[in-house]
């Protein structure tokens, strides 16, 4: 029988790698506190982070406590808060009575309340306590509040970011460098755009798809035109380098979230939300459904000391674009420059 042996140096390297892995595994998890429990995403992230079978980037983060608050202004909040309070407790998350108590128990925070109009007030003590924070979409209820949040984050030197989960759906995020497309020249995204009396404005109805547009095209929009009808809202966005991207906000009829991407090598449909990249134009739907998992991975890396996945400047540009689109709609479809938005 032939015996195989490894050089001493290789054995030492294997031992050191094993020791490093053991040390990483033994590190105490980053403790996350949740502020707001009227949003299902709080439960989804607790399930992913607290899963005893979690692997890879999802390891090393644990949701430990939550403040179960919502808002009386949103019907969804009133009906959802009781059930998500009950559901999140199944993952070992303790309910606490105040933000002060939450901050004592955690290393970092997720602001998960549904109503973005409350986020500036809610995140203020978190940022002043210098706890790294992810704010569930929408970051804020207005451009003014969004600016105030990031200003406070900068003043307190506290890492802070926000994003739609759609940005990190693999069938969208992977289109930016997709070989079948090449360099992205343009993109047409489509998704839900139906307004609500409780949450008026494009910040609420259009953010998922605009984040998708930015995931594929990058930042740099200089002007936007909004054409509105009873069936759809259509944004035409012009980038500083002359590229054009559009968004069709579906108000009537079937709703699906996806895009068509135009490049210097080809044109391709994107994947659909939650699924992977197309293969020769065919979109997979029986692969692993990522849903919230894509953004949860980015959140976990952030909480463990990684960079903010989405820069504040890009998020503020998106909020400026959405306000510009509202101004364009009010002006009957006039093109509005982002630089003119106050």
Features:
single chain; alpha/beta; Rossmann fold; Dihydrodipicolinate Reductase, domain 2; globular
Number of helices: 11
Instruction: Give me the Rg, rounded.
Output: 22 Å
Count of all domains: 2
Tell me the name of the CATH homologous superfamily of the largest domain: NAD(P)-binding Rossmann-like Domain
Shape: globular
The proportion of residues forming helix, as a percent range, comes to: 25-40%
**Rounded mean pLDDT score:** 93
In percent, how much strand structure appears in the residues? Answer: 15-25%
What assembly state would you assign to the polypeptide chains in this entry?
Answer: single chain
- The overall strand count is 13
Q: What do these coordinates show?
A:
The chain is of the alpha/beta class. Helices cover 36% and strands 20% of the residues. It folds into 2 domains: 14-163, NAD(P)-binding Rossmann-like Domain (Rossmann fold, 3-Layer(aba) Sandwich), CATH 3.40.50.720; 175-280 and 311-340, Dihydrodipicolinate Reductase, domain 2, CATH 3.30.360. Helix 2 (40-49) runs parallel beside helix 3 (75-89) and helix 5 (119-128) runs parallel beside helix 6 (143-156).
């Amino acid at each position: 029988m032939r015996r195989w042996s490894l050089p001493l140096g290789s054995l030492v390297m294997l031992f050191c790698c094993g020791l490093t892995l053991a040390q990483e595994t033994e590190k105490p998890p980053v403790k996350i506190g949740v502020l707001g429990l009227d949003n299902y995403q709080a439960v989804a992230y607790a399930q992913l982070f607290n899963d005893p079978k979690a692997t890879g980037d999802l390891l090393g983060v644990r949701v430990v406590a939550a403040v179960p608050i919502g808002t009386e202004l949103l019907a969804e909040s009133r009906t959802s808060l009781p059930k998500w309070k009950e559901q999140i407790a199944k993952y070992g998350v303790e309910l606490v009575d105040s933000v002060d108590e939450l901050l004592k128990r955690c290393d970092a925070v997720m602001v998960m309340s549904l109503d973005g109009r409350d986020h500036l007030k809610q995140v203020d003590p978190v940022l002043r306590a210098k706890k790294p924070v992810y704010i569930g979409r929408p970051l804020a209820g207005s451009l003014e509040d969004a600016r105030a949040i990031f200003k406070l984050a900068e003043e307190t030197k506290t890492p802070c970011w926000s994003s739609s989960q759609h940005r990190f759906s693999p069938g969208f995020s992977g289109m930016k460098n997709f070989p079948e497309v090449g360099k992205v020249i343009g993109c047409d995204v489509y998704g839900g755009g139906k307004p609500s009396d409780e949450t008026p404005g494009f910040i609420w109805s259009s953010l998922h798809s605009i984040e998708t547009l930015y995931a594929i095209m990058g930042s740099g929009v200089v002007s936007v035109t909004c054409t509105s009808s009873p069936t759809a809202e259509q944004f035409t966005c012009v980038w500083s380098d002359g590229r054009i991207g559009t968004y069709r906000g579906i108000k009537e009829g079937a709703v699906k979230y996806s895009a068509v991407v135009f490049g210097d090598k080809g044109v391709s449909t994107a994947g659909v939300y939650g699924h992977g990249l197309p293969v020769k134009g065919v979109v997979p739907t029986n692969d692993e459904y990522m849903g919230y998992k894509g953004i949860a991975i980015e959140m976990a890396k952030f909480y463990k000391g990684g960079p903010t996945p989405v820069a504040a400047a890009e998020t503020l540009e998106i909020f400026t674009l959405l306000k510009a689109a509202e101004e364009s709609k009010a002006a009957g479809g006039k093109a509005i420059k982002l630089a003119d938005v106050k």
